[in-house]
Amino acid sequence: MNFTWDIVLNAKRHGTDESELFFRPAKDRSPWYEQAFPILNETRVEGPEIEYNPLYRFDAMFHDLLREDFTESPLFQEYLFDAVSHFLVQVDLHHGLTKRAFYVRCLMREMESGGFGPSIAAHLQAVDLDKRERLSSLALTQLQTGSSLLLFRKAAVLLFPDALLYQERYEPKQMLLFIADKKDERLEHHTQLIEELFLPISHRLRVFWEHHFGVIGVEATMHTDDIEIY
Q1: Taking the model in full, what pTM does it have?
Q2: How far is CA 45 from the centre of its chain?
Q3: Handedness of CA 73, 74, 75, 76 (dihedral sign)
Q4: H or E element that contains 89
Q5: Which runs of consecutive H residues, i.e. helices, occur in 96-229?
Q6: 113 and 203 assigned to the same domain
Q7: Which of 80, 122, 142, 178 would bridge 164 by S-S if both were Cys, CB 3.0 to 4.6 A apart?
Q8: Domain span at residue 50?
């Protein structure tokens, strides 16, 4: 974690948005690194103030601003440095960004802000950032191609890798999802998200938690104390 863009991504993974970070030029800095953490191999951003060495990559831009004899309007200087730092982070994050990746990020921000309804926004907050982006990619595909059980299955596998998804033979629009985990609020957000966002409108979903429903002829599902009635 050496560069400011890497610091911002690390902060997001630990629940701190970029807008909550305030960048400052580090007083104690090494000419060999951009980051200026007390511990060289720091793995987590504490924030909200982030000190870094701006001269490592941006000497031409910050050299005059950070001169020691530049004492006029110190508060303006602080906020200008922070604003420019955030701008440079965004340039880094979008460098080499494909058109599809750009669309995915825009779609994710729209869903997070309630553009797809308040329930979708609430459900997304319970999903880790990396999986949130992958779900947004699936949502973009759905907007381009239409809803399908294939996209629903991919979303289910993404959030529940060990889950079992069934489709009834005689009622094919009924889907059954078995999740071996104990039901909790976060996981319930996940199931509601994939149902509301990806399940075709003509289909129905029933979720089974912890205990699998009994299947005649499959002995592993017919234990008396570990069976769900369906």
Answers
A1: 0.66
A2: 17
A3: positive
A4: helix 74-94
A5: 99-112, 118-124, 129-145, 149-159, 185-198
A6: yes
A7: 178
A8: 4-94
